[in-house]
Amino acid sequence: MIIKIINNFYHHIRAILIGLKYLLSPGIRITLKYPDELPILPENYRGMLKLNNELCISCGLCSQICPAGAINLKLFEHEQTKQVGRHPEVDYKRCIFCGFCIDICPSKALELTRIHDAAFYVEDELYYEVNRLIIGPKIDPPCMRSKYVISEIDEVRGIVYRNA
Ligand code: SF4
Ligand code: SF4
Questions:
Q1: In 3-state terms, what secondary structure has residue 50?
Q2: Residue whose CA is at the smallest distance from ligand 2 atom 6
Q3: Alpha-helix residue ranges (DSSP H) falling in the chain
Q4: Shared-domain flag, residues 23 and 37
Q5: Alpha helices in 66-105, H assignment, sequence order
Q6: 23-70 pLDDT tens trace
Q7: Residues 55 and 102 in one domain
Q8: Does residue 68 line the site of ligand 1, with CB under 6 A?
């Protein structure tokens, strides 16, 4: 019992000391000052989805494979082409950004964007019906003082960032 208490005490002190180290030495900080600093994301980053409804063949595979139940198929008529089909809608309250729907889509109608940090005023905006999925996610441009950084693996510190 005594040993367990000493052990817990030791780990608490150690955690506090590590926190103090990062607090007092900002040079070794490993977090980003988001949104002042923005990471350059890799090519294949899995962000929000975009739909090309003209390629969609209404097969429903995206809806079937989705492990989070985030995709519903809805009957949709395109305003200009009058093309009618059952196309996906995405509920971002459920989506886990696994990319399975992209992988399985036989006609490449769904694509990934690298946008991941969209913000919404109300919960309903997280539901992307077909029209919004065709337009794709939009975010405000980064503020003027934002700068892009590249992340690199460091043997000692784990991740470090340098200016792009
Ligand atoms: S990315 Fe994954 S969770 Fe999100 S809609 Fe596609 S299959 Fe579903
Ligand atoms: S988006 Fe792709 S997988 Fe989904 S219904 Fe259309 S063609 Fe099928």
A1: strand
A2: 56
A3: 2-24, 61-65, 100-104, 130-135
A4: no
A5: 100-104
A6: 787 666 677 888 888 888 888 899 999 999 999 999 999 999 999 999
A7: yes
A8: yes
Q: Nearest bound ligand to CA 134?
A: 2
- What is the structure's pLDDT at 139? 76
100 C-alpha vs ligand 1 centroid, how far in Å? 6
Question: Are 4 and 70 contained in the same domain?
Answer: no
pTM beyond 0.85, yes or no? no
Which residue has a Cα nearest atom 3 of ligand 2?
105
Q: What are phi and psi of 41, to 5 degrees?
A: -90, 150
* Distance from the alpha carbon of residue 118 to the mean position of ligand 2, in angstroms: 24
3-state class percentages of the chain: helix first, strand second, coil last, to nearest 5: 30, 25, 50
* Domain total of the chain: 2
Among the bound ligands, name the one nearest to the CA of residue 87.
2
Q: Domain check: are 54 and 66 in the same one?
A: yes
Which residue from 1, 20, 24 is spatially nearest to 12, judged by alpha carbons? Answer: 20
Q: Which residue CA neighbors atom 7 of ligand 2 most closely?
A: 56
* Distance between CA atoms of residues 113 and 45, nearest Å: 8
Q: Which domain holds residue 1?
A: 1-29
Residues 6 or more apart whose CB falls under 8 angstroms from that of 25 comprise none
